[in-house]
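fold-stage: in
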Amino acid sequence: MDIVKLIGDRLTLEENGNKFKSICPFHINSEDFYTLLIDPEKQTYTCLKCGAHGGLEEFYKNYEGKTSL
């Protein structure tokens, strides 16, 4: 599975050069700022505000509250 598809099925993404960005769902008071950066080449995500980061498994686990895909 592709991380852009996984996150894009759950959040609104905007292209940002060769990466994507979105509003981070992992911190309280998520403003309307795009702080979640998704790197399709590395298959990772990083939030510039709360520090959430990882790959497919971590995003799925944190977003869905489950332990595996």
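fold-stage: in (second)
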Amino acid sequence: MPKKKFLKPSNRPQLNRTHRMTFLLNDEEKKAFDRYVRKYRIKNQSRFLRELVMISVIRQLEEDHPTLF
């Protein structure tokens, strides 16, 4: 039986999520979200939503950065 490999601790500081954000969906939005989650077999809905929001935020910030010319 092969030995288990252990991951080395990273030197990066741990990024704890301590700030809760909530939002509400109407019935149609909830149905659409549930249908999407089932269709694409999303296992972690929280991670999925967090990544979607942060991708949108980062993309917008990159587009709005100041330019010299």
